[in-house]
Amino acid sequence: MIDVGQKANHQAFNTQHSTLTIQNLVAGYEQRVLLRNLFLCVPEPTFVAIIGHNGCGKTTLFRALTGQIPYQGAVWVAGQDLRGVRRPAATGLLAHLPQRGAVGFPIAVRELVVMGRFRHHGFLSAYRPADYALAEQALARVGAAHLAHRDFTELSGGEQQLVWLAQLALQDARLYLLDEPTQQLDVYYRRRVFDLLQSWVTDQHKIILCITHDLDNLATLPGYILNLSRPQPRLQVLSAAVVQAERAFLESEESLAVK
Ligand SMILES: Nc1ncnc2c1ncn2[C@@H]1O[C@H](COP(=O)(O)OP(=O)(O)OP(=O)(O)O)[C@@H](O)[C@H]1O
C-alpha cells in the first residue's frame, strides 16, 4: 500500500503492511512550520525522489527523521517507532547521506569506506580482509575503485561524493535517506548513481528517499516522486509526463507563492 497526503485520509492506511510510515508529521524551526501534517506510507522496496524549491523543507524532513530536530506526529520504520530508537543507524534501521560530509583529517579512501561495516564489527577489533574486500567492491560499484588508496581529503567534491555512497552501501540499512547524492557529479556519474540507487531497490529491497534537483534523471526510473513545494504533497508514480508536470509547476511563478 502506498500513498501520501494530509491528516484527513490517514486512517485509510494500514501502517502494519508498510515499512515506512510517516503520520501527521509537523516540523520546522521556531516560528516557521515547513512540513504540515505530512503523511507517507511506502512498502519495501521503494524509491522516492523528493523534489521542491530551495528552502521548501526537504532537508528539514531528513533532520526530523534522523532525530536532529523535534517533530510532531509519528514515524515507523519496519514496525518500530523511530522516536523510541536511540541510534537508528547503529541498529541498521536507517542510513543517512547528508548534503555535505566533511572529514577533518587525512584518511585513505578504503579506510573511510570500510567504516560502513561498523554495525557488523566489534568495538575495538580491526576490520578483517573480508570487510576490506566488501569496501573495494562497493567502491567499484560507484566507479571509484581507482581511488581506494588516495587520501580522502585530497579528492574533488564529486569524488568524495562517490566515496560516501560506497560507504553508505556497506551500512546495509532498511531505509536510506540521501540528500542530493548527485550534487557536484558530472553527467556520467549522475546517471551512474541513479542506476546504483535503482539496484539497491531492485536487488537489495531497500527503501530510498532521495532529495534531488536532478529532474532529468528521474523520468525513466521506476518509483515515486514527492514534490514538497506542492501545497498538499502526495506521491506520484514516476513517469516522463509526471516529471514534466512537476518541472512546469516548479518553474511557474505561482509555485513560489505556495509556501
Ligand atoms: N536551524 C534553522 N533555524 C531556522 N531556520 C532554518 C534552520 N535550518 C534551516 N532553516 C530554514 O528552513 C528552510 C528550509 O530549509 P531546508 O534545508 O529544509 O531546505 P531544502 O528544501 O532542503 O532546500 P535546498 O534545496 O536549498 O537544499 C530554509 O528557509 C532555511 O533557511
TrEMBL record:
InterPro entries: AAA+_ATPase, ABC_transporter-like_ATP-bd, ABC_transporter-like_CS, Metal_Ion_Import_ABC, P-loop_NTPase. GO terms for molecular function: ATP binding; ATP hydrolysis activity. The keyword Transport applies. Keywords: ATP-binding, Nucleotide-binding, Transport. The keyword Cell inner membrane does not apply. It comes from the Bacteria. Residues 20-255 form the ABC transporter domain. Pfam families: ABC_tran. Belongs to the ABC transporter superfamily. This is Iron complex transport system ATP-binding protein.
